[in-house]
From TrEMBL:
The lineage of its organism: Bacteria, Pseudomonadati, Pseudomonadota, Alphaproteobacteria, Hyphomicrobiales. One of its GO terms (molecular function) is glycerol-3-phosphate dehydrogenase [NAD(P)+] activity. Sn-glycerol 3-phosphate binds at K108, G136, S138, K191, D244, S254, R255, N256. Keywords: Cytoplasm, Lipid biosynthesis, Lipid metabolism, NAD, NADP, Nucleotide-binding, Oxidoreductase, Phospholipid biosynthesis, Phospholipid metabolism. The gene is gpsA. This is Glycerol-3-phosphate dehydrogenase [NAD(P)+]. PANTHER family: GLYCEROL-3-PHOSPHATE DEHYDROGENASE, GLYCEROL-3-PHOSPHATE DEHYDROGENASE [NAD(+)] 2, CHLOROPLASTIC.
Length: 326
């Protein structure tokens, strides 16, 4: 298995920039791609991504670029753009990468319309790539600051997943490997929708008891969905499932939680990426298609689609028929 000396990061938002520094800290040479040439030049001159991750110096091993081919020539690529942009970016990468190059999805979502998981999107759009996924409880600002963080990296080939963990891991970022690609991506996509629900509960000041009930019942539906779509139970209780659910339902450092809190309090929603708002509808469609009961996610979707008010959604959840706890 190659050592993956060079890592191309495609997408220089908060998470892409944090992962660039993390990979550099692990000893890799890193190419950090943004589609914005001016932003690449500013990052190169200022050695900082002032737009997405202000106050964090770029590691000297990180080279910003607006040349996709330069990033695509690296030994392994991390795809760090919003989930709904992954297909377009993977299509652009397809003619540029060497066959067999690992392309690791770091996005947390499901493609709308196609109902495809992001590793499926990569496999369709860049058929010569080897798809993988990195997910787990990891705020960009924490990782960038070098705070201790642990995540999961999954590929269908255990040896590849393990080699990528070696390439990206450092004393501050610990990676566990897995072959449960589907389970890892389901955890990351679903917890964002549940984080919006947790934010609504907090924004509406429904109390800590309601918040805890929401996380527990949310985890139950996340696990049901994963089972229906081929994820493993042990992955759901791991970093990319329960771990990330706990992190993102804990407070406003999560953009999804902050988005939900604004909905709950009636404030304007922040102008920041909240992936759960894009995932809720497709998640609920996919749940219905396999007869999976996901009342919390369905309530979030109904609020986002203005089919229910926040008040109406809470009433409907509390009025559900009595059932056994499972
Ligand atoms: N932030 C975090 O703590 C974490 C985020 N994630 C996940 O990572 C993904 C990205 O999040 P994050 O970095 O925070 O988001 P940001 O909003 O900070 O950045 C998104 C980046 O993607 C770029 N982008 C969007 N569309 C395209 C496109 N079509 N082609 C090229 N670049 C594009 C944007 O470029 P431009 O500025 O030019 O629009 C921007 O640089 C999400 O799925 C998120 O859930 C996962 C773990 C942690
Ligand atoms: O995925 C994340 C942490 O693991 C980031 O969550 P938010 O996108 O809600 O900020």
């Amino acid at each position: 298995m190659p050592a993956f000396d060079t890592i191309g990061i495609v997408g220089a938002g908060a998470w892409g920039t944090a992962l660039a520094n993390a990979a550099a800290r692990a000893g890799r040479q890193v190419c950090l791609y943004t589609r914005d040439a001016q932003a690449a030049a500013a990052m190169a001159a200022q050695r900082e991504n002032r737009h997405a991750l202000p106050g964090i110096a770029l590691d000297p091993r990180v080279t910003p670029t607006a040349d996709l081919a330069q990033a695509a020539a690296c030994d392994a690529l991390l795809l760090v753009v919003p989930a709904q942009a992954c297909r377009a970016v993977a299509q652009d990468l397809a003619p540029l990468i060497a066959p067999g190059t690992p392309v690791v999805s770091c996005a947390k979502g499901i493609e709308r319309g196609s109902r495809a998981f992001i590793t499926e999107v990569i496999a369709e759009a860049a058929p010569t790539a080897v798809p993988a996924v990195l997910s787990g409880p990891s705020f960009a600002s924490d990782v960038a600051a070098g705070l201790p963080t642990a995540v999961t990296l999954a590929s269908s080939e255990a040896a590849l997943a393990s080699a990528l963990c070696d390439a990206l891991g450092s004393s501050t970022l610990r990676l566990y490997f897995s072959t449960d690609v589907r389970g890892v991506e389901i955890g990351g996509a679903t917890k964002n929708v549940l984080a919006i629900a947790a934010g609504i509960v907090a924004g509406r000041k429904l109390g800590a008891s309601a918040g805890a009930a929401l996380v527990a019942r949310g985890f139950a539906e996340l696990t049901r969905f994963a089972k229906a779509y081929g994820g493993r139970a042990e992955t759901m209780t791991g970093l990319s499932g329960l771990g990330d659910l706990i992190l993102t339902t804990s407070g406003p450092q999560s953009r999804n939680f902050a988005f939900g809190a604004a909905l709950g309090s009636g404030a304007a929603t922040p102008d920041k990426l909240a992936e759960g708002a894009f995932t809720a509808g497709v998640l609920v469609e996919m749940a219905r298609a396999r007869d999976v009961d996901m009342p919390v996610s369905a309530a979030v979707d109904a609020v986002l689609q203005h089919r229910l008010t926040v008040e109406g959604a809470i009433e409907a959840l509390m009025a559900r028929p009595q059932k056994a706890e499972r």
